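Bumping my old thread because nobody answered last time. Still need a sequence for this structure:
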């Protein structure tokens, strides 16, 4: 029983006895809270109520309070993917949104709306395709190309090239590069087979021409003198 009485006494002396629109001053008495857009300049006394002061530019207070300092307004840094959607007032904080190409990772703490932290959309790399483009709330979703397809820029997957009958595969395809085809050396054999007889005839013709141009041999024996 004594423990219960002691607990109630501690609860009452802790300042929790103040009404919802009151705050506990430094001397332990309950004082009326300041309205939104203002903070306490001087606590109340038995003779006078709480003296409040308005928030200056760059600060705000969005709730009844017993504080002596206003909250600093948030800054929307465009270099970090944020832009100002609504400027700060004495009773509301700055509301930031994300710029194009970014998504919000964390909403603003006080309001639960707007954005306090943004991140740039992921760029899908080679071998992947963009399954879902990024939005202001979600990041880009990437997906690996299936077998037989490739993507050099991370946008779409394209099927590998199929080499023709007159070509051979010089380099196999991968998820990031296409198959490389080159002309097959076998395709030249039929042409050589048709040209070879012509070349043979031509060589024989040249040899005959050269043989016909050589001088004929004459007899070295002289005729005998008839006077002998």
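Sorry it took so long. Here it is:
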């Amino acid at each position: 029983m004594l423990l219960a009485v002691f607990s109630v006494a501690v609860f009452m002396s802790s300042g929790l006895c103040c009404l919802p629109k009151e705050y506990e001053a430094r001397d332990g008495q309950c004082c009326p809270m300041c309205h939104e857009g203002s903070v306490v300049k001087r606590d109340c006394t038995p003779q006078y109520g709480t003296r409040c002061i308005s928030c200056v530019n760059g600060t705000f207070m969005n709730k009844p309070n017993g504080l002596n300092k206003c909250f600093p307004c948030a800054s929307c840094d465009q270099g970090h993917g944020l832009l100002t959607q609504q400027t700060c007032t004495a009773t509301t904080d700055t509301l930031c949104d994300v710029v194009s190409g970014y998504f919000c990772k964390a909403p603003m703490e006080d309001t639960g709306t707007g954005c306090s932290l943004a991140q740039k959309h992921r760029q899908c790399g080679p071998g992947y395709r963009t399954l879902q483009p990024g939005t202001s709330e979600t990041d880009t979703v990437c997906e690996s190309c299936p077998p037989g397809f490739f993507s050099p820029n991370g946008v779409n997957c394209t099927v590998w090239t199929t080499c023709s009958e007159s070509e051979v595969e010089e380099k196999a395809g991968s998820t990031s590069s296409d198959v490389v085809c080159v002309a097959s050396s076998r395709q030249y054999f039929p042409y050589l087979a048709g040209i070879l007889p012509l070349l043979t005839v031509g060589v024989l013709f040249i040899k005959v021409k050269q043989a016909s141009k050589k001088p004929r041999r004459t007899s070295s024996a002289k005729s005998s003198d008839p006077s002998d």
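The chain has two helices and 16 strands. Let me know if any region looks off to you.
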